[in-house]
């Protein structure tokens, strides 16, 4: 894998102008690609941006750049699906799971208030679990995790083994959660999509793995959530560099020895 050069291919789409000019976020995505597959990657991201349920964009940016750093291989998190009958039950379960990772309940409650305050945030909020303070200072932009992927053939074998949906949405979420959880300062992540038609979300951590929750918001709700809970973070620039710049491939070890 390291012998071949890879490129980070990224897309962002918005309505009523670019994000930085107040445009509504429609869609975003990213892939790691060899040069020969860049056209495929760009077309896949273009299709994603043009067909999102949040609306039709009038601004889109698709770009690619050569990855200079060595690509780190990481394992997918253990996965469990928690089926709940209502959003209330799903939210209650998410709080319970976050508490199991060691986050005080009062910090979880404070973090939820940030999501109300920054309802149009495009990236993640980073919260210190000791103080409960939002420490990223990125305002409406938030923190965007980038330069990550999971080779399709390996992901498909993983999905078949665990009887999980073989979908780009599931793959993207698993890749991001695995990368975030890999950092020593990361305690947990809480996430649900801003897609009004997709209500499944998750809590992820090194301790609990990837815990899917089938209902974390109501159908039609366009407000998403992504919170990274951290502890003992002393080098902020290093943490951000890891999330935004460190290239990562998720690779399931169950695929070892298979052709």
TrEMBL record:
Quaternary assembly: Homodimer.
Protein function: Catalyzes the transformation of pimelate into pimeloyl-CoA with concomitant hydrolysis of ATP to AMP.
InterPro entries: BioW
CC cofactor: Mg(2+)
Protein name: 6-carboxyhexanoate--CoA ligase
Chemical reaction(s) catalysed: heptanedioate + ATP + CoA = 6-carboxyhexanoyl-CoA + AMP + diphosphate
Keyword Transmembrane among UniProt keywords: no
Pfam families (alphabetical): BioW (PF03744)
Keywords noted in UniProt: ATP-binding, Biotin biosynthesis, Ligase, Magnesium, Nucleotide-binding
Originating species: Bacillus lumedeiriae
Metabolic or biological pathway: Metabolic intermediate metabolism; pimeloyl-CoA biosynthesis; pimeloyl-CoA from pimelate: step 1/1
Superkingdom of the organism of origin: Bacteria
Uppermost EC category: ligase
EC code(s) of this entry: 6.2.1.14
GO function terms (MF aspect): 6-carboxyhexanoate-CoA ligase activity
